[in-house]
Design a protein that fits this description.
By secondary structure, the chain is an all-alpha fold. The protein has helices at 3-21, 28-50, 55-60, 68-100, 107-134, 142-146, 148-163, 169-187, 192-216, and strands at 135-136, 139-140. The protein contains 9 helices and 2 strands.
Amino acid sequence: MDKNEHLENLKDIKALMERSSRFISLSGLSGIFAGTFALLGAAAVYYKYFGSFSIAVYKNRFPMNITVDFVFFGIIVALIVLILSISCSIFFTTKKARKQGLALWDETAFKTIINLLIPLFVGGVFCLILMYHSIDNYSVSYKMFGLVAPTTLVFYGLALLNAGKYTLDEIRYLGISEIVLGLFGCIFIGYGLLFWCLGFGVLHIVYGFLMWWKYEKD
């Protein structure tokens, strides 16, 4: 057996170990679509509140006088974005798993989902608590509610970091990026929608494209 055959065997063994210990069927296309949906949702919220996409209008209305109606509209949009993103993730991940000849729901996939959902659930409850304390007699506390958007980024990043050990390395890097962005958002209160666009929109698209380019383009 020559050197090239040894290398090929080692590559096969490495691939087999990765398939058995990591959930590698995640599709970069799902990240691209999730980021696109997030940007469209943020655009809808921005236009609903400001009435235009002009920076001058934004500066004239800053700090924002947030209303309860605006809060509920944002929640509805966020839920729509979440449902569309999950749907695309399931579709593209299933398609990739079939192409690779892998089982979609194995033990590794289950561990990935559990480790992802626990921080997401805690973060979701914490954000609801923030919103609960930010609303008083149909008025909204600007600073308290301003923490909601960046907090979602922090907990989402923690969820990705927690699940990253069972899947692709890029997921961990994405998680760290989301955490850092979320912490900056907690400092610069009032720009939560911008940080939300960068985190759930731009970062998803960038990492999704990189994952597609690295693992799927062929």
